[in-house]
């Protein structure tokens, strides 16, 4: 625990951001193509249906406006879908940080006092209600904890990306007890490691993780 670890953080998928401009360009192309087709067909429309210049102008404008309205509606629908997906990602953030794997695998990189970031350090993350907490296995002597408590900032990998987090101190004894139970429940199989995490030296190093 509290030992340096290498953390592989994959890049965030960009396919969604590339698809939106492509769809907009394709929609514009379709509208332009249809407008050209209508213009080419105007002589046949005049011959078969009659009507003057004003009527033909309404045909062209009405056809173009109809497709433009459909394109705007599709863009609005896409925007609402993107907002829904973003809210869903926000809701999943804590779940990503609290994934329960067989081994401790959360590598925090607190920000140092000079603004740089430390090498990743493996820690355990537990949940209490909607909040996530970490502790220093080495107590207040933990190097990562010293920087995290001083700067209150850093990164935590979650869901394949590096998340900016804020470390805030907690002084509620009731929270201490609940976090003790969370460590025992989640990591109780790791004999020799859980005991120091619920000892007094580690209890006072509790930090809450907040996404920035």
TrEMBL record:
Gene source species: Actinomadura rugatobispora
Signal sequence extent: none
Transmembrane segments: 20-42, 62-79
Domain of life, per lineage: Bacteria
Protein known as: DUF2255 family protein
Topological category with respect to the lipid bilayer: Multi-pass membrane protein
Key word Transport present: yes
UniProt keyword Lipid metabolism, yes or no: no
């Amino acid at each position: 625990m509290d030992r340096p670890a290498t953390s592989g953080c994959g890049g965030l998928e960009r396919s969604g951001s590339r698809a939106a401009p492509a769809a907009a360009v394709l929609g514009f192309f379709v509208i332009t193509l249809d407008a050209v087709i209508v213009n080419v067909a105007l002589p046949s429309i005049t011959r078969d249906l009659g009507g003057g210049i004003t009527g033909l102008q309404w045909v062209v404008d009405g056809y173009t406006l109809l497709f433009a309205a459909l394109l705007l509606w599709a863009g609005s629908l896409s925007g609402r879908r993107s907002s829904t997906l973003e809210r869903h990602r926000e809701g999943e953030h804590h779940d990503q940080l609290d994934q329960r794997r067989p081994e401790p695998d959360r590598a925090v990189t607190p920000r140092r006092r000079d603004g740089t970031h430390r090498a990743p350090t493996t820690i355990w993350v537990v949940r209490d209600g909607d909040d996530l907490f970490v502790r220093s296995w080495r107590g207040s002597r933990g190097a990562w904890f010293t920087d995290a408590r001083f700067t209150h900032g850093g990164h935590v990998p979650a869901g394949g990306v590096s998340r900016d987090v804020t470390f805030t101190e907690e002084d509620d004894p009731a929270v201490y007890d609940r976090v003790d139970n969370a460590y025992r429940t989640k990591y109780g199989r790791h004999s020799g490691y859980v005991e120091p995490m619920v000892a007094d030296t580690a209890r006072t190093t509790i930090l809450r993780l907040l996404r920035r």
